[in-house]
Amino acid sequence: MAPSTLTALAEEKTLQASFVRDEDERPKVAYNHFSNEIPVISIAGIDDGGEKRGEICDQIVKACEEWGVFQIVDHGVDAKLVSEMTTLAKEFFALPPEEKLRFDMSGGKKGGFIVSSHLQGEAVQDWREIVTFFSYPTRTRDYSRWPDKPEAWRAVTEEYSQKLMELACKLLGVLSEAMGLETEALTKACVDMDQKVVVNFYPKCPQPDLTLGLKRHTDPGTITLLLQDTVGGLQATRDNGKTWITVQPVEGAFVVNLGDHGHYLSNGRFKNADHQAVVNSNSSRLSIATFQNPAPDATVYPLKIREGEKSVMDEPITFAEMYRRKMSKDIEIAMKKKLAKEQLLQDLETPKLETEPKEQLLKDLETPKLETKPIEEILA
Ligand code: OGA
Ligand code: NI
């Protein structure tokens, strides 16, 4: 059974089975074994134009081509607002389970509180609690799904949303220019840009080596701005999961990563960051992800196909369709994995197995044979 909150489970000595991942998915690198491969870029002076803007653009573009991830500092979002946001978020997650569950969205509600994620057919759960709200376009806001405790939550989150929308548009301007397009090109491609904020809370975990806070994925949208505390746990890979690095937390910075939409619009020139979050047994961790997405009916197709290149997409599709294909692929993989596991367990219990190579079967159980496509192809 899926737990309704992680409060009680975090106190146990062992991890509940529903969170235990197959060996091939488990963390390979420690949550606090930090790497400085992801560049930290100061964007002070980005609006001044001229040489300074050019230099900043070059750094951002290089990071987008190599990783699809970079960190920004001197971004102009007020430090007080950021600290209020994190303090209030921590207060929300510290509320008793019944308070958090007043905003339970497990029935498919749009926004609120939930454990793990709301994907259907997931074989294994993520070790996280989230509270999420849809902040743009503003006319779609449903405040009945925004927590009313702590008291300042709504006012602070509204301001935070607005500041992050502005910052995201600034970054999209830089990326548009880098593609040789007018500054507004990427924001225009989003039509009426959507923004969704997901506050992730990863409680201390009794057996962090067996699970993930958030399983490996790419974000579907254009660009994501992640605020993380100093604990560490965000990991990225650029070789399809062979090697991972843990992103060094930088106080006051935003981790910026490109999603699938950004990847397609650039015809694959900019990477869609392949990432996950790991947990630990020493401290809980908080991160706030702000997803900037195109409108559901916005067209997804490369804005610029450079000479000699082929389009990475066969045909233009809507963002809603792109998302639907991504989700059904993810669910299909999760279901196959679940079925393969159940089948093997069943086989192991039948007597005929006495004559079969049991060892091999047990090995298969750890790594079910699924055709795993490289992440770039998942949506193709
Ligand atoms: C996400 C995400 C990473 C983190 O919410 O999509 O990738 O470190 N979060 O919480
Ligand atoms: Ni993500």
Task: State the helix count.
Answer: 8
Number of domains: 1
Reported CATH architecture: Sandwich
Looking across the biggest beta sheet, what order are the strands in? 2-3-11-8-13-6-5-4
CATH class: Mainly Beta
State the order of secondary-structure elements, H for helix, E for strand: EEHEHHEEHHEEEEEEHEEEEHH
Strand content: 15-25%
Question: What is the average of the pLDDT values?
Answer: 91
**Globular, elongated, flat, extended or rod-shaped: what is the shape?**
globular
Small-molecule binders here are:
N-oxalylglycine, nickel (II) ion
Distance between the termini: 34 Å
Radius of gyration: 21 Å
- Write the CATH fold name: Jelly Rolls
Largest sheet: 8 strands, mixed
CATH superfamily (homologous) name: B-lactam Antibiotic, Isopenicillin N Synthase, Chain
Walk me through the structure.
By secondary structure, the protein is an alpha+beta fold. The chain has a single domain, classed as Jelly Rolls (Sandwich). It contains eight helices and 15 strands. The site of N-oxalylglycine (OGA) has 12 residues, from strand 6, strand 8, strand 12 and strand 13.
Task: Give the gist of this structure.
This protein is 30% helix and 18% strand. The protein has helices at residues 50-66, 79-93, 97-100, 153-178, 185-189, 260-265, 319-349, 358-366; strands at 34-35, 40-42, 69-73, 112-115, 129-136, 194-202, 214-217, 223-228, 234-237, 245-247, 254-258, 274-277, 285-293, 299-300, 317-318.
